[in-house]
Amino acid sequence: MSPGEPERDAIQDGVSAEGLVDSADDEEAHESVRNRGAASIIAQGRRRGWKDLEEPDRGRLRLLELRRVFVSPGDLAADAAVIGGEAHHHLVHVLRVRVGEHIALLDGLGGAWEAMVEGADRRALRARLVGPLAALPEPAVGVTVAQALGKGDRFEQVVQHATEMGAAAFVPLVTQRTVVRIDPRDVEAKRARWRQIARGAAEQAGRARVPVVEPPATLETVAGRFGEFGAAILLHPEAPRLGALASGTESVLLLVGPEGGFAPNELERAAAAGARLASLGLYVLRTETAALAALSRILA
Q1: Pick from 8, 44, 59, 157: CA 20 to 30 A from residue 146's CA?
Q2: What's the 3-state SS for the chain?
Q3: Final residue belonging to a domain, choices 132, 152, 183
């Protein structure tokens, strides 16, 4: 089969000779569901105090109505897009978009465009750009989550759900009581996996930016960066309640310990470096639950 030949296996599954099928059949059935989802997100944004959301325009609603995918800025030309790689696979084989269907293309930097699918082959999907879309704004507070690495997929859960909630960045945190240790040779592969999870979660949530996933760092290294943030908040069950510690600032570093919590000397050094210790209430939470509970309160 030549590189540009349409996907015959896809055609057998009901995909047209252009690699996709016509979209008119069930678009109307999905429209009301999309509108309800858009209205719900807009209402949540108002309650959270997101910037510039007092009078949401049609462009933002339109973004939420469309299927969304992040693409490389290099895939976008003046009036067309040629999409390859993971985005191509996601659109054709996961979302199964169709010829004539309108989709939202996000560049991961805050830009969004509406495009109409024109066709696809094994290597790329072709779309015509219809025009720019007004993206949903980011939360008023930029929260970087420094989450201690945990067993299993706990860090991945935090990346996924905190991205959906509005986290701006993640730091895989290595502490004295961290059980999981990543071989230096595997760091980039792990970061690629975490970035992929963040990208998928941002697409699902309708965000126009993908949170940054930084390299793993020790608590001592992260403490040297406290001055970059309006507030550094370290979760500790014996500290005062989180309350309004993050109010009045535009950036927060949220530090979440491993299953066994931070060691006493780590708490002392973090406090000496300027971190504020805070708790989430009376109950003992799993490390991944604590991160999400704190994030929701900061962004509320």
Answers
A1: 44
A2: CCCCCCCHHHHHCCCCCCCCCECHHHHHHHHHHHHHHHHHHHHHHHHHCCCCCCCCCHHHHHHHHCEEEECCHHHECCCEEEECHHHHHHHHHHCCCCECCEEEEECCECCEEEEEEEEECCCCEEEEEEEECCCCCCCCCEEEEEEECCCCCHHHHHHHHHHHHCCCEEEEEECCCCCCCCCHHHHHHHHHHHHHHHHHHHHHHCCCECCEECCCEEHHHHHCCHHHCCEEEEECCCCCECCCCCCCCCEEEEEECCCCCCCHHHHHHHHHCCCEEEECCCCCCCHHHHHHHHHHHHHC
A3: 132
Give the tens place of pLDDT for each residue, 4-43: 444 433 323 334 434 454 444 444 434 343 444 445 555 5
Domain coverage including residue 89: 8-132
Q: Considering 71, 97, 132, which residue would you say is the last residue of a domain?
A: 132
